């Protein structure tokens, strides 16, 4: 797993080359290979570990949404946080995201959970940990992914162009605590999980605030309305 061998947008490949060459990434690669060789099923599939980076090149990032771990159920994870494949039941947190978008922008909830439309417009849908063992939540935490995704956030933070960071829940807020809020728009709210959405996620209006900030800085706003057919 090197910057040359994984599928990555050129800008990310160049920006993250030092990370791929670091010992911790070699150890992470060895861990993933050993897990697969022992018969464990890893989500998402190998070609989609870096799907968020592939769809949203560094120079295109306008908004960063941080998740924690990939979904660990069959057929769900495909490399974008909160997103699921077409035909898969919409997870509860994403359903609450849709509810807030409707309250904020008047956009009716999508009938699917496939978020590539956002990613292709510059929404970096980044999980902190990029893989998980089937049916074992948080099973790949502490294996090196967190350091790698910290580096991704740092590269975005270093961009001259202002970016919106949507940090939902304490975990995301801690992870991106170093982001320069004098340059970027840092939006914080409770996590959209049903356990916490009523504690400040509902009513946060992050989606309209993000677009207002983008327009103010001469950037095209995000079309948060997903196509009917993914």
Automatic annotation (TrEMBL):
Enzyme class: hydrolase
Active-site feature positions: 69 (proton acceptor)
InterPro entries named among the record's database cross-references: UDG_fam1, Ura-DNA_Glyclase_AS, Uracil-DNA_glycosylase-like, Uracil-DNA_glycosylase-like_sf
Catalysed reaction equations from the record: Hydrolyzes single-stranded DNA or mismatched double-stranded DNA and polynucleotides, releasing free uracil
Name of a matching Pfam family: UDG
SMART domains, alphabetized: UDG, UreE_C
Subcellular location: Cytoplasm
Domain Uracil-DNA glycosylase-like residues, every copy: 54-214
E.C. number: 3.2.2.27
Gene3D superfamilies assigned: Uracil-DNA glycosylase-like domain
One GO molecular-function entry: uracil DNA N-glycosylase activity
Gene Ontology BP, a term: base-excision repair, AP site formation via deaminated base removal
One Gene Ontology CC term in the entry: cytoplasm
Annotated keywords: Cytoplasm, DNA damage, DNA repair, Glycosidase, Hydrolase
Family: Belongs to the uracil-DNA glycosylase (UDG) superfamily. UNG family.
Known role: Excises uracil residues from the DNA which can arise as a result of misincorporation of dUMP residues by DNA polymerase or due to deamination of cytosine.
Protein name: Uracil-DNA glycosylase
Source species of the chain: Gluconacetobacter tumulisoli
UniProt lineage: Bacteria, Pseudomonadati, Pseudomonadota, Alphaproteobacteria, Acetobacterales
């Amino acid at each position: 797993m090197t910057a040359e061998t994984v599928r990555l947008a050129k800008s990310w490949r160049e920006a993250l080359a030092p990370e791929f060459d670091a010992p911790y990434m070699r150890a992470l690669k060895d861990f993933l290979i050993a897990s697969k060789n022992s018969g464990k099923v890893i989500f998402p599939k190998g070609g989609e570990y870096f799907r968020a980076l592939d769809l949203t090149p560094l120079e295109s990032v306008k908004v960063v949404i941080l998740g924690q771990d990939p979904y660990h159920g069959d057929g769900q994870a495909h490399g974008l946080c909160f997103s699921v494949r077409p035909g898969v039941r919409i997870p509860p947190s994403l359903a609450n995201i849709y509810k807030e978008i409707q309250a904020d922008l008047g956009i009716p909830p999508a009938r699917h959970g496939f978020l590539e439309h956002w990613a292709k417009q510059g929404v970096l849908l980044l999980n902190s940990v990029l893989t998980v063992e089937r049916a074992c939540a948080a099973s790949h935490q502490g294996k090196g992914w967190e350091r790698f995704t910290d580096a991704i956030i740092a590269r975005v933070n270093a961009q001259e162009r202002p970016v919106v960071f949507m940090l939902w829940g304490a975990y995301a807020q801690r992870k991106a605590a170093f982001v320069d809020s004098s340059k970027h728009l840092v939006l914080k709210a409770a996590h959209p999980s049903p356990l916490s959405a009523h504690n400040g996620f509902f009513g946060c209006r992050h989606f309209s605030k993000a677009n207002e900030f983008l327009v103010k800085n001469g950037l095209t706003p995000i079309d948060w309305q997903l196509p009917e057919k993914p």
